[in-house]
Fold each of these.
Amino acid sequence: MDTMNRCVALLFLAVVLLGALLIAQDKDRRAATPAAQVAASPFMVAAANPLATEAGRAVLADGGTAADAAVAVQAMLNLVEPQSSGIGGGAFLLYWDASERRLITLDGREKAPMAADETYWLGPDGEPVSWWDAVVGGRSVGVPGTLKLLETLHGRYGSQPWADLLRPAIDTADAGFEISPRLAESIAAAQERQLDRFETARAYFFNPDGTPKAAGTVLKNPAFANTLRLIAEQGSAPFYEGEIAADIVSAVRTDINPGILTLEDLAAYEVVEREPVCMPYRAFEVCGMGPPTSGGLTVGQILGMLATVDMSALGPSAEAWHLYIEAAKLAYADRALYMADSDYVAMPTKGLIDAGYLAERAALIDPDAAMDTAEAGSPPWDEAALWAPDTQVERPGTSHFVIVDSHGDMLSMTTTIETGFGSRVMTRGFLLNNELTDFARAPGADGQPVANRVEGGKRPRSSMSPTIVFKDGEPVLLVGSPGGSRIINYVANALVAMLDWGMDPQAAVAMGHVVNRNGATDLEEGTEAADLAEALRALGHEVNLRPLESGLHAIQILDDGTLTGGADPRREGVVLGR
Ligand code: GLY
């Protein structure tokens, strides 16, 4: 890099980090207040923590690929945003391979232990155990996939040495980092949710007197540094078949709610390359991840129904949001009935996003009146299998990042340990997921099985919706979010804002949310979305105002190649690039 470029990059970094700090400290801000729009070329990264974004930026500035940067970003997120994602969890990835002009999707979702069956979440009385009783302890831990996904990605698209990409996280874990305001809030909140019941998590996140560690406390994690050093030297082998595997298996055998995951389960774990799910929308093609996540299909269904109306002409009005809400109800009804791990259950994957079917579903929407709740439809399908709906609601954890490199490769990755702090079980400096609670806890209803019931080796249904949008065959937009089962709405809101209403990524991710999961409508309090309440109630909607904690990150690729990014002002993320 020449001196001029270096100065510009440093100035840019300083401005963005200062902005992030101010945003993080201003807890009372309206969520809709946009941070500065960031523009750059030829590379950009947006992630949920400034240290993670900077780790990715440094790799990209050194000529690394998006795959290289993803390894550095994820390793750093694991350290500095440990409550949301890491090698103890799972992830879905969309990767645009510019030289082959191919969109790849990789499934690094956690898997149930082979010995699990549909009675997994039933208590001694035969009834499903309560949500928090299921979350806390080793029983909720699925076989993690994130590390193998990163290794697979790097093996295919990486250009820099694997060990070098883990170095920033190793150094930061050794030297320590300051607990961010958001992490401090999360630790304090999780004390109510039994985080301090587990000795390793207690020692790491709490002071000796039992109080939660405060923002600004320097946290060192030598155990995680050593874990990453081993992985830097030997790849994922020690994690899936060696000494880390042994520690994971031993850690899930907790006193409270012990798990049944075995060494064989870890050794058998595979990342799966799957077909992307793509939907035409206006002049665009919106591509997402297929099953076992419901994300790509449900976002696709919402857009497919909205494609029948001119959302651009309506603008972000109550009329437009009414149509959006009704489409979301219909899509979530199909999601509950049909969507699960299609390696285990027959699914009408193509039928669910069939244009004719979605036009029929859209015709059920009354422009002047809200439906109560939607019933699932009958998408075109050869199978006659019938399921009972799954009413499981995932709680928000998770993180999302987007990266464009200077070679034209780019990626959109959503990564999770499920709820904040996952199962609370920690080993070797990282938390283990509670992803098995994304399965239905009740295996059936009304004499029918639930598609998303637990089965040995199955992947739990997700809502994660990493998305890449194409126009004329070229990628033009990357987006995704955390937020449990609301993820689908957060991503669909942002897509409508950018594709129909012409908002730039920062305005779109900061826009107040309108969420419906086939029940009452949630409007984000303190934002322009809350102003819709009266008009929506007049149309018959049940409306609640509440905080809606998305973590959207987006990058748009403009016609001249300029990249513009957006980082969700509700979290601590930043956009960096050059
Ligand atoms: N655990 C969040 C999701 O997979 O959607």
Note: Residues 3-25 form the longest helix (23 residues).
Amino acid sequence: MEKTVQLYEGKAKKVFATNDENLCIVSYKDDATAFNGEKKGTILGKGVINNRLTNRLMRLLMENGIPTHFVEELNDRETLVKKVSIVPLEVIIRNISAGSFAKRYGVGEGIVFKNPTIEFSYKNDELGDPLINNCHALALGLATEPEIETIKNYAFKINDILKAFMLEHGIELVDFKLEFGKLPDGSIVLADEISPDTCRFWDVKTHEKLDKDRFRRDLGGVEDAYNEVMRRLLGDTK
Ligand code: ADP
Ligand code: UDP
């Protein structure tokens, strides 16, 4: 499958059309941003790592009954996916307090929740991806009630699958962001990426951060952390 025109360039990926109107190619960049694009940088090799990790995790989820946009890994940075209409909600699941949750509610990081939490942000860069609830999403026509219900069910199931898989590899799944899309037949599938850019990963024993917080917080060792996640989950550092 060949790329035709570029449809979109985002902060971390480019999206290209193909000869098949139902398929597109995502190309992962090394560009990194944080705080709604205010902080910019490069994480060398990130595009390759996020592409390969995302595809590994998408395959795992599909084997466990979650429909996704994944079709085929084309090369180290590029993947063929089903073209979807993205539901403009960032779906965030949390198992342990961190980041904006800790800040918003005035608690420390590292509180292990008895049950996972879910929240939605309205995916809108101009507004800074504001927090939104079900009723607001319905009022704005971002999704229907059954669609929101499906997304919630998938998100919690994805959490169960990913949490167990990460633990097998010595990684605590702290929190993560998902995006879902709609296929032409109206069905909902998991889209976008699942990577150290979009998840918080802590080493089980040392609680060392193995994700984008190293970039956001200038902790150093950013590339090493991404490589370590790839080594643990894919068994290599290519
Ligand atoms: P952002 O738009 O937040 O800067 P990216 O740089 O990751 O993010 O850009 C990738 C874009 O592609 C995102 O807007 C994402 O919603 C969108 N996308 C992800 N998967 C698909 C898909 N299967 N079909 C169409 N668009 C997709
Ligand atoms: N996240 C993301 N994209 C966003 C916002 C959050 O991938 O635009 C991920 C983030 O990497 C973390 C989780 O969602 O794993 C929860 O992020 P949080 O709300 O704590 O926000 P942050 O600390 O990134 O401001």
Note: The chain has six helices and 14 strands.
